[in-house]
Structure formats: structure tokens, C-alpha cells
């Protein structure tokens, strides 16, 4: 292979858009862009100059088709069929559509010549006053005339020689300018095996055009006929194939039109959505910037407030310090330098001043702190309809202000989940309104301090914490709730865990007579009876409590716990199902 040959992709990338389209595609090569020179028809029905095809970078392909290859060429149609086997072939890629072209044994020159392109090139050349056409006999001089009998283009010298020969004396010669209105002036197609003979016959057995010498030679036993006699049959078969192909062309054109419409709709939709995204993002950015400015102003206000408080405290402490120093210095000077009488005279004023200074209340710690925190995850409401996040929090949790709440704070049942809530507050007693604190909870039985109960602390993210636990045994438990290693308000405290709630085994009724439907043997825990042998209670009769009650234990509260122990004093035939 020649190293100077450029790869196909490199050549195709330089082709202008639509090179092989339009009228120029019939006469101009898609590679060199000039008029076709010895054009070859590829299996994909694209036409390229022979020299241009030879410059393409070939590659090796494995052909398993053997002699069944569908690559058509004038040279290969006269080769014998080869047995089916793996063969290494040389191939190229079509410079127009990138289709793989398997070259025949004769290479590029064995590919089919595109005679239609040759005819179109000749017509194109005639329209240009014959420029580019050379004599078919001498291949040197420019063409002046055309022999209509031989269908040969001749120069002036060869035209005179053509007329002097006896066989061609009476051939019709026509000037090239008179052929401009013709639609076809192609040369006769000669047999590649017998170059002196024109292809006029068609071998039905081999399905190929042949010449007169081929018929008397290798095609002697084959059915042959003139091309004019068989063109109708073969032309009709091609037309039938074309008829089946045309609907596909229409369908593909329609599909491409739909794709074009969809692509246009897609572009419009993308632009519309992009506009929505820009509008939304611009509004969101504006809202965020406004919220940012608001937070920065809030932060500046907090700084000014805290700084003013510090400056005020500083001025007060400085004044107090100055007063203290004055008192101390004067008193020390009096005691060290004053006489006894002087000390006694000024003692009253000094003592009163020092006592007053000693009574002044002041804080040795700064009155404010630097607890300022930005919480980006907290919701900050809406700004121009957009949900925004991020708050500045200056609250500092004070464990002594945190409180515990809940019905199960001091009571629980064994093997039942109990819970209570921790409400966190700052030093001013205001709810923190945020979570994230390290809450530590420990619940330990008093008689088994090495067996703590497993607790679950749920952060509600609003300054409250839901604490739950499940005691396994009854008894007294100690509960510790700490934040920052400090007990909260009310911690530690005790919880009394009682045994599991006992459900009622009887019915909650007005009387035994009504609930049992008048059964004499039905009894009630209230102890009431009725005359006539009734063992249960009845309205207005002896022992009736005067209220609805449980038949199993006699309690008046419907949601109470059953206290029946199952002893001998308890009735044995209590009503256990609700009747009526």
C-alpha cells in the first residue's frame, strides 16, 4: 500500500456539503470535483473517478461469500465462480456514503464503468464548445467532428483519414456544435474480452451482455439473444423492483419531514423551557440576593446591638473602676499619711463612700456573647414567591431553662412504650426554634443500675425532642436528661413503672338483668341481687350501685384497669359478652 495515500475519512472531511447532489453529481466526481474521468459505478450506486478510487486507503476484509459476492463489475463477470471459503479481500469505503465496497480481483479497474456518467460528461463538454474532449483515435488532438456510424469523436486529421478509408468513406460525419441538442451521444460499449467487438447480445444463462465472438466461444451452448429483444423482459423486472422501492422513498421522505417537524418543535420547546428556566433562575437569584442583603443587614444590626451593649458595659465598669481606685487610693493615703485626728475626722465620709462602692452590683463577665450562627438548612419563609433557606440565630441554649413535658413523664407500663418531650429554651426563656443539640438521656432502674433502658431521641428540628423508651419490668426508674453535660430543668426525676394494663373480662353495663337478657344465673361484681332467684343486679334493687359499671370488677370508669384478681370472693359466672 502506498503510504502517501490519504485515509478515506481525511478526504471525506474536506468534501463540501452536498457535493454528490444536484446536476453536478451526474458529471462531476465527489472527490476531485472535476468532470468524471473513467467513472466507476460502486455497488452503492455512487460514481467516482477511477484515479480517485485508486487513491483511497484500502483495507483487508474477510469474504465468506466466495463466488456469491454481489459486487458487480465488468471484469469480474467473466471470472469463474470460486468455491465458498474464507478469503482475504481488499475493500474500500465509498467516499459519499461510507458503504463498504469489496474490490474484485482486478481491483478498482474491474469495477463497472458508469456509461451514463460518460455520456453526461460528453454532453457537458459539448455545451462548453467541446473543451476537454480529445480524439478517440489519436487521443491527442481536440475533437471537431463525430462519426454517427462509428459513434466516435474525431479530430480534424483523423476525420480526413476516416473518410479516405474504403470502409468508412460513406460514414456520416457531424460537427460537434450540431450535437448540442442531443440527449445521448455515448460511445459503443465494447466487450472487455474482445475489445474489437461491441456488446450487442445478452446471455440468459450467465445473465450478462456478450459480443458476437463470446457467443461462438465460451457461451456457445447458452441461450443468447439480441439486447433489443430481451430488454423488455429485463427492463420490466427492474421497473417492478423500482415500483417496490419508490414507496420506501416516499415513506422515508415523510419520516424525514416528520423528523424535521419534530426537530423544529423540539427546538421551540427547548427555547421555551430555557426561557422558563432563565426567568425562574433570575427570579430565584433576585430573591436569594434580596434575602442575602436582609441577612447581612440583620447581622450588622446584631453586631451594632451587641457592640453597643459591650461599650455601655465597658463605660460603666470603667467609671466604677475609676471610683474604686479613687476610694482605694484616698483611703490608703489617709491611713499611711494622715494623723490620728485627721483619720478620725474623715473616717465618716470614707466609710460611707467605701460601703456604697462595695454595694454596687456588676458582672465580671461580658453582658453579651459572640454566639452568632448561620443555619443554611432552616426555612426562612418566602421571598417573591420563592421558598428560601438560611437564618441567623443568636440564641444560646440554656439547660436550666429547658423543660420536660408529657403525660408519661412520671408513669409508665411494663413492655409498653412511654414517651415525653423536651422543650429547649434560651437564657431568656424563649423557644430555640431549631434542633441539632446533643441531648443525652439515661433511664436506669433503681435496683438494677447496670441495666439501663434503651432510649430513642428524635430531633423534631423545631427546638423540641421526642424521647421514647420501653421498660421491660415494673419498678422505680431514675431518668437523667442532659444537654451540654448539664441537667435540664426537673432532671433527674423518677418514673414509676406499673405492671401491664389489665383489660376488663366482663361487660360495661347498666345492670345484669338488662345485659344478660334476664338470665337468673348471671352475676355481677357489684354484688347486687334481685328477688325471684336472680343472682345479678337490677335497677332499683338491693346492692345496685346506681351507675353503669363493669360486671367483672364493679368499677364505674369505662376506661379503667380491671382489678379483679380471680379470688374466691369474686363471682364465677360473670357475664363476659355484650348482649342486647
UniProtKB/TrEMBL annotation:
Domain B box-type: 130-176, 186-222
Pfam families per UniProt: Filamin (PF00630), zf-B_box (PF00643), zf-RING_UBOX (PF13445)
Similarity comment: Belongs to the TRIM/RBCC family.
Places the protein is found: Cytoplasm; Nucleus
Keyword field contains Nucleotide-binding: no
Name recorded for this polypeptide: E3 ubiquitin-protein ligase TRIM45
Molecular-function GO term, any one: ubiquitin protein ligase activity
Residue ranges of coiled coil: 249-323
Uppermost EC category: transferase
GO BP: any one term: protein K48-linked ubiquitination
Gene3D superfamilies: Classic Zinc Finger, Immunoglobulins, Zinc/RING finger domain, C3HC4 (zinc finger)
Filamin repeats: 394-497
Record function comment: E3 ubiquitin-protein ligase that plays a role in the regulation of inflammatory response. Mechanistically, mediates the 'Lys-48'-linked polyubiquitination of TAB2, a regulatory protein of the kinase TAK1, leading to its degradation via the proteasomal pathway and inhibition of the TLR-mediated inflammatory immune response. May act as a transcriptional repressor in mitogen-activated protein kinase signaling pathway.
Organism field: Gorilla gorilla gorilla (Western lowland gorilla)
Amino acid at each position: 500500500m502506498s503510504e502517501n495515500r490519504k485515509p478515506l475519512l481525511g478526504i471525506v472531511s474536506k468534501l463540501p456539503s452536498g457535493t454528490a447532489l444536484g446536476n453536478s453529481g451526474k458529471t462531476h466526481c465527489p472527490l476531485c470535483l472535476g468532470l468524471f474521468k473513467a467513472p466507476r459505478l460502486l455497488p452503492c450506486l455512487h460514481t467516482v473517478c477511477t484515479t480517485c478510487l485508486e487513491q483511497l486507503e484500502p483495507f483487508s476484509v474477510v469474504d465468506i461469500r466466495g463466488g456469491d459476492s454481489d459486487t458487480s463489475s465488468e471484469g469480474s463477470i467473466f471470472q469463474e465462480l470460486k468455491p465458498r471459503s474464507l478469503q482475504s479481500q481488499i475493500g474500500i469505503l465509498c467516499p459519499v456514503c461510507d458503504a463498504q465496497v469489496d474490490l474484485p480481483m482486478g481491483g478498482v479497474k474491474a469495477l463497472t464503468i458508469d456509461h451514463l456518467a460518460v455520456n453526461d460528461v460528453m454532453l457537458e463538454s459539448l455545451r462548453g464548445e467541446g473543451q476537454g474532449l480529445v480524439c478517440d483515435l489519436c487521443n491527442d488532438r481536440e475533437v471537431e467532428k463525430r462519426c454517427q456510424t462509428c459513434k466516435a469523436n474525431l479530430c480534424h486529421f483523423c476525420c480526413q483519414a476516416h473518410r479516405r478509408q474504403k470502409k468508412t468513406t460513406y460514414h456520416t460525419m457531424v460537427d460537434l456544435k450540431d450535437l448540442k441538442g442531443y440527449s445521448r451521444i455515448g460511445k459503443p460499449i465494447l466487450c472487455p474480452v474482445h475489445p474489437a467487438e461491441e456488446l450487442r447480445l445478452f446471455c440468459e444463462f450467465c445473465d450478462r451482455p456478450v459480443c458476437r465472438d463470446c457467443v461462438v466461444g465460451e457461451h456457445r451452448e447458452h441461450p443468447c439473444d439480441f439486447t433489443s429483444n430481451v430488454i423488455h423482459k429485463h427492463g420490466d423486472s427492474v421497473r417492478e423492483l423500482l415500483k417496490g422501492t419508490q414507496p420506501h422513498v416516499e415513506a422515508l421522505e415523510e419520516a424525514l419531514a416528520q423528523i424535521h417537524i419534530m426537530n423544529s418543535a423540539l427546538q421551540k420547546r427547548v427555547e421555551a423551557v430555557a426561557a422558563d428556566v432563565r426567568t425562574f433562575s433570575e427570579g430565584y437569584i433576585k430573591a436569594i440576593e434580596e434575602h442575602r442583603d436582609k441577612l447581612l443587614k440583620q447581622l450588622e444590626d446584631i453586631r451594632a446591638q451587641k457592640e453597643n451593649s459591650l461599650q455601655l458595659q465597658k463605660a460603666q465598669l470603667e467609671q466604677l473602676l475609676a471610683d474604686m481606685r479613687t476610694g482605694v487610693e484616698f483611703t490608703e493615703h489617709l491611713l499611711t499619711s494622715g494623723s490620728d485626728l485627721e483619720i478620725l475626722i474623715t473616717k465618716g465620709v470614707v466609710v460611707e463612700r467605701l460601703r456604697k462602692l462595695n454595694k454596687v452590683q456588676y458582672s465580671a463577665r461580658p453582658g453579651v456573647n459572640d454566639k452568632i450562627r448561620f443555619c443554611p438548612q432552616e426555612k426562612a419563609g418566602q421571598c417573591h414567591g420563592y421558598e428560601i433557606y438560611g437564618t441567623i440565630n443568636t440564641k444560646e441554649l440554656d439547660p436550666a431553662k429547658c423543660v420536660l413535658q408529657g403525660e408519661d413523664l412520671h408513669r409508665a407500663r411494663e413492655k409498653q412504650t412511654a414517651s415525653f418531650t423536651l422543650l429547649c429554651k434560651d437564657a431568656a426563656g424563649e423557644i430555640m426554634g431549631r434542633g441539632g443539640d446533643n441531648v443525652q438521656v439515661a433511664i436506669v432502674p433503681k435496683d438494677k443500675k447496670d441495666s439501663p433502658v434503651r432510649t430513642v431521641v428524635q430531633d423534631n428540628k423545631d427546638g423540641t425532642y421526642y424521647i421514647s423508651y420501653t421498660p421491660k419490668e415494673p419498678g422505680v426508674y431514675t431518668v437523667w436528661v442532659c444537654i451540654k453535660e448539664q441537667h435540664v430543668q426537673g432532671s433527674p426525676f423518677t418514673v414509676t413503672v406499673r405492671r401491664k394494663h389489665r383489660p376488663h373480662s366482663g361487660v360495661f353495663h347498666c345492670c345484669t338483668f338488662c345485659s344478660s337478657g334476664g338470665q337468673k344465673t348471671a352475676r355481677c361484681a357489684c354484688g347486687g341481687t334481685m328477688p325471684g332467684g336472680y343472682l345479678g343486679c337490677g335497677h332499683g334493687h338491693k346492692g345496685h350501685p346506681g351507675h353503669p359499671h363493669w360486671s367483672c370488677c364493679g368499677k364505674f370508669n369505662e376506661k379503667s384497669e380491671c382489678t379483679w384478681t380471680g379470688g374466691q370472693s369474686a363471682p364465677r359466672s360473670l357475664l363476659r359478652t355484650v348482649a342486647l
